[in-house]
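Journal club side-thread
Mid-discussion, someone asked how the predicted structure for our own chain would compare to the paper's figures. Pasting it here so we can look after the session.
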Amino acid sequence: MKDIIIIGGGPGGLTAAIYAKRAGCDISVFECMSPGGQVMTTPEIENYPGFSGTGFDLAMKFFEQTSAMGVDFQFENIKSLKKEDGIFKLCCESGAEFEAKSVIIASGARRRKLDIKGEGEFTGRGVSYCATCDGNFFKEKIAVVVGGGNTAVEDAIYLSKLCSKVYLVHRRDSFRASKVLTDKLPNHPNIELVLNTVPLEIGGDDKVNKLIVSNKITGETSEIITDAVFVAVGTIPETSFLPSEVELDKGGYVVTNNKCMTNIEGLYAIGDVRNTPLKQVITAAADGAVAATYAAEYIGG
């Protein structure tokens, strides 16, 4: 049995691992893919103090530090979690089972889909949810980014350096993205803003060749000729493995107190899966420090 199990190896989970390890706890970090989480796909990090570089580089620094401390990593996907007689029991998709005195949920969130015709059909054939992963496939070609938040604007700017033309389609007349990002858009003349517009259908033959959109003001339908559609319309928290008694907000994010504890004693939630108003690397890391400190206190009695 572990003192603390951390579900998720992003910045929050790895920071929690550092703090828990320094507190003398016996811990394991469960990650179903590679350590680093979504930050791995961020092209540039400019707002994490003391660091300037790619998200991949920052993720590797987190991983190297935790590895050097002897943190145990389990590359397993958690299927279910429950608490019985004061002990947390985790079941993995592989069938493996683990127990812990306390659990920190750092499972993050996955990209939300558009749920329009053609999206599923052309996923991997022009439809992508990761500009930094797939942008290179569309050098000197035309791309569309759908969304209005930080990720969408970051993706558009990143793709503008690779693609001949980038359309940024957003359903409103202004962006939710931070001003420091939107202020950069005019510096990239090959980015064209398509505002007050929603996507209706993705079309193509063997691969994407168009996006059908509708203007919300005029009701007019039109086609954007494109080789790729990058979807950046928000996230859905990864909570499917949690017991039904865990309190969630109306968006499906885990509700916690100021110690990052959920309504179940000994169960904590941090980072993008938590109902935090700001989802950034630095806030996830702060959550990790808070949760690990109080989880160590909890198991210490």
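Post-session note: The helical segments are 11-22, 55-68, 131-134, 150-160, 179-182, 281-299.
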